[in-house]
Amino acid sequence: MSYSNAEELLAAIQPATGGTEILDPATGELVGRVAQGSVADLEAAVDTAHKAQPAWDALGHEERKRLLNAAADSIEANAEALAELLSREQGKPLNGPNARFEVGGAAAWLRASTAYDIEPEVVVDDGETYATKHYRALGVVGAIGPWNWPMMISIWQLAPSLRMGNTVVMKPSEYTPLSVLALGHILNEVLPAGVLHIVAGGRDVGEKLSSHPLISKIMFTGSTPTGKAIIRSSADTVKRLTLELGGNDAGIVLEDADPQAIAEDLFWGAFINTGQTCAALKRLYVPESIYDQVCEALTNVAAKMPMGVGLDENNVLGPLQNKAQFEIVADLVQDAIDSGAKVLLGGNPDLQAPGYFYPTTLIADIDPQNRLVTEEQFGPALPIIKVKDVEEAIGHANALETGLGASVWSSDRQQALAVAARIQAGTVWINSHGTIDPRIPFGGAKQSGYGLEFGLDGLKSLAQPQLIKG
User: Fold this and answer.
1) Which of the residues 244, 295, 376, 453 is marked catalytic?
2) Distance (Å) of CA 452 to CA 132, 160, 289, 360, 457
């Protein structure tokens, strides 16, 4: 079934009466209502998924690939209604690398999960010993998603899980449940009954999911403290885990970089989704020799990017999704200002205006130990730190406990590669930041999580390796 707009889609997923109100972070207006699931609802979903899993696995890879591609077709047929709902609930604009981009990415990542053949691997064949490695379904996968990219990250979790023969029970963020429920509704019009369940609920639902004995693996994207809690609660049942946790990604500009040429890519590396991205550029280290030029070029680009209500086709930046995140960003920026750092742009939110809008903010001449640098802001505020040389930049980049992504900016690719090899991060980009690809594995280092998503490695992480010798 196709839905022509968000209201039609909401009518299909909202409770007839009651439910918790979800408000637009840009306007404060009602988006819709969500029925809050209980631990009992979670238990029922897990039980149903457990019973449905053997038949889903028995369909085989080719039939599951066919169904997942049909599900991607369904997302594309409903793309505008999904994007409108996403914009209203999450806040991100329709245009730019935002709502329509996210819905398109959800369909693309779903198709990407079908692009690989998973064949048994011959491990040893020497005439005397023959051993093969096979990849078997785990069972039921539990997925816990965030509010920043609710649709696309849900697909990152559920698509490879389903492709490998698992069933899925998912708990969306309390801030963006409607987007995920709508996505699940669209998918479940194609998938067999019982294969995919979305249970919108609070912390008690997430805690039960991460400790449930019938859940074989947890996939989680979110904060490091919550990830640590999931590790603890999953320990008694020895669940497999894929955790994509906090970032605070560093970018290092080398002396040979062209400030004008890199300015717009620097901007989007930092401010995509209004900075609310785990693998966004969150602290930028620039050498003294080109510091002023980089600051000027980046400020010129940032000043031209319109921010406002997401349904306005002109905007490319939106509000912060919730009040708590607004307060975090405001506190960190104020701390930087109070320390004597220089405001190049922004830093002056209108607290009387509706919505959680924090202006695009660039902070220069800041101490490397300031909280805006050392704590993840997760919003539209970028500190630009002056360094003497690349050695100092690498030292600062590696000093924190996080290591999701990083970037190196240079006109000399070989020099950039040499610097990249010294950075402690799961992914290092050259002359871009956060440009993920469904074919390329992605995962964090240090306290930014563990396990890989995307590509063949991501698929294999959703399976139990089994060695057969003989």
Assistant:
1) 244
2) 23, 11, 38, 32, 7
**In which region does residue 68 sit, left (phi positive, over 0), alpha (psi from -120 to 50) or beta (all else)?**
alpha
Q: Are 349 and 274 in contact (CB under 8 A)?
A: no
Sheet harboring 249-253: ordered strands across? Answer: 342-345, 361-364, 381-387, 281-287, 249-253, 405-409, 427-430
Has 295 been annotated as catalytic? Answer: no
Tell me: the pLDDT tens digits for 116-168? 999 999 999 999 999 999 999 999 999 999 999 999 999 999 999 999 999 99
| C-beta atoms surrounding 213 within 10 Å | 9
**pLDDT tens-digit map of 61-82:** 999 999 999 999 999 999 999 9
CA within 13 Å, CB half, 229:
13
Active site residue 244: yes
Q: Is the pTM of this model over 0.85?
A: yes
Read off the amino acid at residue 244. E
User: Span 2-9, mean pLDDT?
Assistant: 96
Joined tokens for residue 357: 């809008």
What does DSSP say about strands 405-409 and 427-430: parallel, antiparallel, or unpaired? parallel
Question: Which is nearest to 155 in space by CA: 270, 74, 215?
Answer: 74
CA neighbor of 37 nearest in space, from 46, 28, 29, 25: 46
* Catalytically annotated residue among 278, 295, 376, 453: 278
The tokens describing 165, both together, are 């023969």
Region 267-296: mean pLDDT is 98
